[in-house]
Write a structure and sequence with these properties.
eight-stranded mixed β-sheet; DUF4136 domain-containing protein; two-stranded antiparallel ribbon; Double Stranded RNA Binding Domain; about 280 residues; signal; alpha+beta
């Protein structure tokens, strides 16, 4: 999906991907969901409402022949229906047209430093430092290697302890979707790529994963939840964890599909020899 979006020119990106609801599909969501930053903009007056209106997702450029985009369309159709819209397949039959563009920022590396206090071990009191008289220690002892750290001058008093620092890096990406809504009566037969939308919703989140496929459900859900909003308003929306994908139609493992039938039951469905009640081999 990233390659498909990257090949589109900037103007086409804005009106390209159709919207399907964005949810927190960023791997395991946990019980708290995901926080999404959302901004809403209006062209003039009150933007068209989605509830009860015939709405179509408009594919442009390479999206029209993309199986990848077709999956995005299906998800967007579900979220539009959830918002109360009547989804139709042809833009000519719709009162509202919707387009979606998406982008992923370059990786941003953040450095974090945590300082914590720990108790000084017995061997450290016997071999306190290579440089006595200072409050910085880094050295070796007969019982092993001692990490560097900072301690107070009274570190070896009644309650000896040592300050240590732990530094780690984190790579993050800003993922953004732009949902654009068009009044099809005003748009007529013109392409939305060269027209100002009647409303626009920008939803973004920061993730350790650059995957658009994972982030799109979260972002679209947040964008449609905020629509139409107030012109120029920025706010944060908590998207609750989405239900897990329906896996009831997934094929069973081959060991279960092609297991030989149980002896003495010809014509019956195959049952795995390792299943419940299967006789155990004798030695």
């Amino acid at each position: 999906m990233t390659r498909l979006l990257a090949r589109l020119p900037a103007a086409a990106l804005g009106a390209a991907l159709m919207m399907a609801g964005c949810s927190t599909a960023l791997g395991p969501q946990g019980p708290w969901g995901v926080s999404v930053d959302v901004a809403t903009y209006h062209r003039s007056g009150t933007p068209p409402a989605l509830a009860g209106q015939k709405t179509a997702v408009i594919a442009q450029g390479e999206q029209a022949a993309s199986l990848e985009f077709n999956r995005v369309r299906e998800r967007l159709d579900e979220e539009l229906t959830r918002a109360g819209a009547v989804v139709v397949g042809k833009p000519a039959a719709a009162a509202i047209g919707v387009t979606l563009s998406a982008s992923v920022s370059a990786p941003m590396v953040h450095v974090h430093t945590d300082e914590y206090r720990r108790t000084v071990l017995y061997n450290e009191m016997l071999y306190p430092t290579l440089w006595p008289g200072t409050n910085y220690s880094f050295g070796f002892s007969p019982l092993g290697y001692r990490h560097q750290g900072w301690r107070e001058p009274s570190a070896y008093g009644a309650y000896p302890y040592r300050y240590q620092r732990h530094t780690y890096t984190e790579t993050l990406h800003d993922i953004t979707v732009r949902l654009r809504v068009y009044d099809m009566k005003r748009l007529g037969r013109r392409s939305p790529a060269n027209e100002l939308p009647d409303a626009e919703v920008v939803a973004s989140l920061r993730s350790a994963s650059p995957s658009l496929e994972e982030a799109l459900p979260v972002l679209i859900r947040a964008a449609l939840s905020a629509y139409p909003g107030v012109d120029g308003q920025h706010r944060s929306i908590e998207v609750p964890p989405l239900p897990a994908p329906d896996r009831t139609l997934e094929p069973r493992p081959a060991s279960e599909q092609f297991a030989p039938p149980t002896q003495g039951q010809p014509g019956q469905p195959a049952r795995s020899a390792a299943g419940p009640g299967a006789p155990r081999p004798t030695r």
